[in-house]
Design a protein that fits this description.
2 copies of one chain form a homodimer. Chain A is an alpha+beta fold and about 280 residues long. Chain A is built from 8 helices and 14 strands. In chain A, helix 6 links the parallel strand 10 and strand 11.
Chain lengths: ~280, ~280
């Protein structure tokens, strides 16, 4: 197995630099797999324990045996240089099968680790906050897959196609019942007084690791957390709104359609706490 | 480009036997693509015009530029021998992109053609009909993707995992409103007197080419067709039930859970008409 450490190397498949993905891989054929995205810094994955736990949990939902943490960590250390900051993505699929939905008698999961450049976000997104749009594409209600970061992401793709204005950082996704769920690549929080609200993800949406971390650290800011369903009208009367993911941490929302908020300190405080 | 004609060759990627799929292909990353499955016989695709039209239409829904019919036909003729009967699958994805949902400025679709053996179905499925189960997994309502044969097929995968009994040919998928929609790998029809009913697929489901052909040829059996929403209770009081796809044509349904039907001739007649 090749042990090439170069900047041009961008992925590893089943631990090998020279392996390929078959069109018979069920990840390709059906989106039959799970993924995670996180930052690699100083040769280490940020919040690895939570990301690995979530990968295992998501694999379990669709009955894929997740590769061991040791194997994935070894892949990451082969692919990422000790001194670089970059974005890692782990994809685990059910592996190759014959044509048709029937599961093969024996499946060997395919594991892929990719490396991408760390995005250079405009500094004002951290300093002043971001603008969001509201997507016309709505999330369908599928409780069997809700919360899971699986490879069936056409809804996110269609939603992301709706805007081209670089001043818009992300788009809010409502479900088909018009509840606020998330953004195309972020979870969302809103503050009402000392209450921090985030949407329930029991019908659809992706429950991210940063969302989980924020729910756990909110009490250090004397915020009570609540996971519940709410609509856009309610979001618009929040004191502050914030979006989050594992790459940028948290951004304050300053504008959604006609609604604007003055600069708040929620996202800045949360970012500091996430880094601690 | 290699021009190898052997039985072991099972796929062609972008017209080449030696090409591979990148983990950055959006078909793999997000299920961002479309597919079709049909029979190759005597070196020709069965019902090619309808399959190609549907591929173009489905690509248009998610804004992928479909490869030309000439290119795909050339792929098929490279991959399939003139004297074999086998199953072809065409997959068209949006192509490679960077990490993230944002569409690349320029996309070159990836086209894949695979060859699989023709399934050897038990003869009794044609002679006597088939047993169906009713899946617990329900189809979410997503009008933006309804009818389209896209690569986000986790619902079908989960549904197909629900039974292992080889005596069950397929499973009925209901939507989350409990309407009968289809089977995991088939469309479904029911006959009430001279009326042939098939579910409306405006909220979910895949509108297959064989379903379309049956809707068009039903009048030759003096059947009026109707596309509408109905539930399992209504299906159970049908005079006859039939499932269909592009591989086996049509099968009479003899049993669903506690409900059994005596042998009817609907599927047999339709099969003959489909072959004409």
């Amino acid at each position: 197995m090749a042990q090439i450490h170069t900047h041009s190397t961008t992925y590893l498949i089943n631990g090998g630099f020279d392996h390929t993905i078959s069109p018979f891989d069920r990840g390709f054929a059906y989106g039959d797999g799970i993924f995670r995205t996180f930052v690699m810094r100083d040769g280490l994955p940020e919040n690895w324990l939570l990301h690995y736990q979530k990968l295992v949990a998501d694999c379990a939902v669709i009955n894929i045996v997740c590769p061991s943490a040791e194997l994935l960590m070894s892949d990451l250390q082969q692919l990422f240089l000790p001194d670089e900051v970059a974005v890692a993505k782990i994809i685990v699929t059910r592996g190759e099968g014959n044509r048709g939905y029937t599961l093969p008698a024996i499946t060997a999961p395919t594991r892929v680790v990719t490396k991408s450049v760390m995005p250079q976000y405009p500094e004002e997104r951290f300093a002043e906050g971001v603008n969001l749009t509201v997507c016309e594409t709505k999330l369908a209600l599928q409780p069997k897959l809700a919360g899971v970061k699986h490879l069936n992401r056409l809804e996110n793709v269609l939603a992301r196609m709706e805007w081209h204005d670089p001043a818009i950082a992300d788009g809010i996704l409502l479900d088909t019942d018009d509840h606020v769920i998330e953004c195309t690549a972020a979870n969302i929080f809103s503050r009402f007084g000392d209450k921090l609200l985030t949407p329930s993800l029991h019908q659809c949406g992706v429950a991210g690791v940063t969302r989980q971390r924020i729910l756990e650290l909110a009490h250090t800011f004397s915020l009570r957390v609540s996971v519940e369903s709410f609509n856009l009208e309610k979001l618009f009367v929040a004191d502050e709104v914030m979006i989050c993911n594992s790459i940028y941490g948290a951004w304050q929302v300053k504008n959604i359609q006609q609604k604007t908020w003055s600069i708040g300190d929620l996202a800045g405080n949360i970012r500091v706490a996430l880094k601690a």
